[in-house]
Amino acid sequence: MCGIVGAVAQRNITPILIEGLKRLEYRGYDSCGVALHTDGRLQRSRSTSRVAELEKQMQEVGLQGFTGIAHTRWATHGAPASHNAHPHFSPSSDNARIALVHNGIIENHDELRAELIALGYVFQSQTDTEVIAHLVDHLYTGDLFETVQQAVKRLHGAYAIAVFSREEPHRVVAARQGSPLIVGLGKGENFVASDAMALAGTTDQIIYLEEGDVVDLQLGRAWIVDVNGKQVEREVKTVHAHTGAAELGPYRHYMQKEIFEQPRVVGDTLEGVTGIMPELFGDEAYKVFKEIDRVLILACGTSYYSGLTAKYWIESIAKVPVSVEIASEYRYRDSVPNPSTLVVTISQSGETADTIAALKHARSLGMENTLTICNVATSAMVRECKLAYITRAGVEVGVASTKAFTTQLSALFLLTLSLAQVNGRLTEEEEAAHLKDMRHLPSAISAVLALEPQIMAWAEDFARKENALFLGRGMHYPIALEGALKLKEISYIHAEAYPAGELKHGPLALVTEEMPVVTIAPNDALIEKLKSNMQEVRARGGQLYVFADVDSRITSGEGVHVIRMPEHYGCLSPILHVVSLQLLAYHTALARGTDVDKPRNLAKSVTVE
Ligand code: HGA
């Protein structure tokens, strides 16, 4: 999603801004731009192509400067076109006094636009962002810090902004509310960015701004005022931000690389877990787990499906009731709060706007026992929650999440066992058996990855289809949902998932000889029921593509294609089955020639609502 980088220095900052944008590039964007204070004027360069193209454009005209801001945009308001790309200028392109970049959504943009048009401002874009640029210009007093503090009072919605003025050449002012923003401190120079990763190699001295903060960046000072306009000191952290996208190595795409990293990252996520204990989630975890008598999981997309899987685990093993809600729904609906709930948020980036808002909503309803499963230790989510488990998936570049999902599942299984233990539902023998299975997970996943050639053969068939159904039962139903989501996201094939028993209540009407039906068939208590559901599909001519456990006695035949999973893996079986579905989606997309790592319309780290 959108990325911001800004700098005030005594050297040419173009390389810092461009490098910062490149580090944020993997999140997905549709346009990018840079504005600099150059020779007493504001100048900008914008592109609907890649950051490398923007860099070339800037080199051609020799665009350099000591003060500036840069942006990657993922359009929410207005088409992904160059006139909508940030930075936005005010009062006009040729007479720019204010330059501004923004992440988020301004909800009262229509009202503000009408007001500003009445004042004579002419809009050049369809974005909600441009209203902020004109608003700042309209309120400008000659002191940008003071002006921005006034301007943000008029904004409703979510924003992280960075702005500078032609009249104050060594100053960038930034503010946040609902979208992440950090400050990077240098020696006689200061920076702002939407993520510390953007500044890796420039500075490791990072301040995480809080909601409502406005910061004044000058050469030797970084002053922050809080939401009440009171000057505040915020903790400076030394952050060794990872340097972004790693090398592809022998892989064609990051998604493929990340699928194949799963044995290692699942191992890393579980490393050091020699026994089950609540303290894995934080010092207060034992007390919290004792206090709660239900769990509410809040998440979006793939993380939501890991939450759904965890519901099956927690209810069957720990015997604690669980509800799982889509964060963007939960935050706006009337629900019945219960203070003895453990609120669990799941997010790869820890910055997912909907999930953070849902968490805050839950807290506002008096539910203070919060825990997050997250891949970024320094994220807003980790900072907001009482307890946390940090997955060790490493940077996930592919927009379609893979290794983040399996590491989330690994952490959620640990949570299940910890809750079971606190509730006296885990014997020492059971604990030892589960730990043994978890230790063996990396090699079990590797065995699934070895199925790639067989899955590639199936992908050839799938690439010619426009629809697909996915079936699962029990804890494999969320895995069917995740498999369908993967296929949709990167191959653009319409795919839907159903609990297999639900087929006859409607979706069976879709089954013809043209319909591939992917079936997850672990050898569990529901296998005979599932076989009946498969017969229902075959009777209507549907083509079954079955991932069957080694001992499930399902054989290939007319219209029934079977790939045998290496072993039956009990409770942890969802972690293995999803890997085969990831490979199926990947190879289908490859055969269709889509942009696997940057699927159309999607972005990583969804920091807007
Ligand atoms: N609303 C702004 C910024 C969008 C954004 O933050 N995307 O991640 C726009 O549409 O330009």
TrEMBL record:
UniProt EC number: 2.6.1.16
Name one cellular component (GO) term.
Answer: cytosol
Entry keywords, A to Z: Aminotransferase, Cytoplasm, Glutamine amidotransferase, Repeat, Transferase
Principal localization reads cytoplasm
Keyword flag Transferase = yes
Task: Describe its assembly.
Answer: Homodimer.
Role of this protein: Catalyzes the first step in hexosamine metabolism, converting fructose-6P into glucosamine-6P using glutamine as a nitrogen source.
- Specify the protein name: Glutamine--fructose-6-phosphate aminotransferase [isomerizing]
Q: Which organism is it from?
A: Pseudoduganella umbonata
Q: What is the lineage of its organism?
A: Bacteria, Pseudomonadati, Pseudomonadota, Betaproteobacteria, Burkholderiales
